Amino acid sequence: VGSKTVKSFAVPSRPTGLGVEPGTLEEASARTIRFDEEVRVSVGADNSWIQVIVHGTRRMDDVLPFMPFPPMAFTNPVYVVRRR
After folding, report:
1. DSSP code of 69?
2. Residues whose CB is less than 8 angstroms from the CB of residue 52 and which lie 6 or more positions away in sequence, other chains included
3. Could you tell me which of 68, 76, 69 has the C-alpha nearest to residue 55?
4. Tens digits of per-residue pLDDT, 22-47?
5. Residue 32 to residue 14: CA distance in whole angstroms
6. What is the pTM of this model?
7. What residues contact 75, with CB distance under 8 A and at least 6 apart?
8. DSSP-based three-state secondary structure for 54
């Protein structure tokens, strides 16, 4: 919120296997790790913005040789404007 980290979560992982996922699509989907959490944050009395950033820990070069660093993803900022 407004460039300050207000919540952090550790999400468990599972070993990554290369190649075709065994089993049916439903079985592969059941092995997918998902993070589903309602997060409430306080943005204060002034206008601000909220952004979600996700960092991985395992380097991606075992799957993508040209990417020898951990994955990262982020949302666009969501602006919170207070009307007075």
Report:
1. S
2. 74, 75
3. 69
4. 788 888 888 777 888 888 888 878 88
5. 9
6. 0.64
7. 51, 52, 53
8. strand
